[in-house]
Design goal:
binds S-adenosylmethionine; Rossmann fold; 7 helices; eight-stranded mixed β-sheet; about 220 residues; single chain; alpha/beta; about 25% helix; about 25% strand
């Protein structure tokens, strides 16, 4: 089967290289619901195989994470939409026991090539199909979703599920989201007005704007 070529699509990573694709129609329903745009695992495989990488995890991002969310050493973390594992590896270095989840087998192979085993495992899983098999309900101390939400069909529903079924009460959600201005969004961005919607139902802890990426740390309420 031939894979879709990189030139057939435009993404946030390409936007960083100056190639913008305007996709405002993606968010036309924003008024009543935040709508994402699902991208096929085959496309992710092709991008990964061709070497397209998302925004690298920076030292400033890690410092922000460390000051607000790295307090739960030896905790259980899920890196949802882990890609080639850049954040998963850093979470493991912080002391978490990490499971990286992704639909793209090519990305997961590249992630595993950087090492896996004790404290860091990867699993192919479609996040829109519910929690991964074997994950105990309410068993996670941390869920990270970096540059993922705009690629889910219903980002708000997924966040609701993470809060209700993935995280323990008081567990932490780390979001890395690229925001843009409605009307000039590129694929992989959410409109700025979405920030409040993403935080609804969570206890807000911290936010940091780091160039393309806005980082948010939220906590699930103590029940
Ligand atoms: C832009 S990349 C971000 C990768 C990584 N989190 C990072 O920050 O570099 C988005 C990743 O989400 C994965 N993804 C998208 N939709 C998914 C889904 N429904 N289930 C699991 N993974 C998904 C893609 O395969 C891709 O690896």
């Amino acid at each position: 089967m031939s894979l879709p070529s990189l030139s057939a699509v435009s993404t946030l990573a390409e936007a960083g290289q100056g190639r913008l694709a305007r996709l405002p129609e993606q968010y036309q329903h924003l008024g009543h619901r935040l709508v994402g745009r699902r991208t096929s695992p085959l496309v992710w495989d092709a991008w990964a195989a061709e070497g397209l990488r998302s925004v690298p995890v920076s030292e400033r991002e890690l410092a922000f994470f460390a000051s607000h969310a790295a307090y739960h050493r030896a905790g259980t973390a899920v890196d949802a939409g882990c890609g080639t594992g850049g954040l998963s590896r850093r979470l493991r270095d912080f002391g978490y026991r990490v499971t990286g989840l992704d639909t793209s087998v090519v990305s997961l192979d590249l992630a595993r090539a950087h090492g896996h085993g004790l404290g860091l495992t990867y699993q192919q899983h479609d996040l829109e199909a519910g929690p991964p098999p074997g994950m105990p309900a309410g068993g996670c101390d941390l869920v990270a979703a970096r540059l993922l939400l705009p690629f889910l069909t219903d980002p708000e529903a997924w966040l609701h599920e993470v809060r209700g079924r993935w995280l323990r009460p008081g567990g932490c959600l780390y979001l890395g989201v690229a925001f843009g201005d409605a009307g000039a969004l590129v694929r992989g961005q959410l409109p700025r007005e979405a920030i409040a919607r993403l935080c609804a139902g969570w206890e807000f802890r911290a936010r940091r704007d780091l160039g393309l990426l806005t980082c948010l740390i939220l906590r699930s309420p103590m029940r």
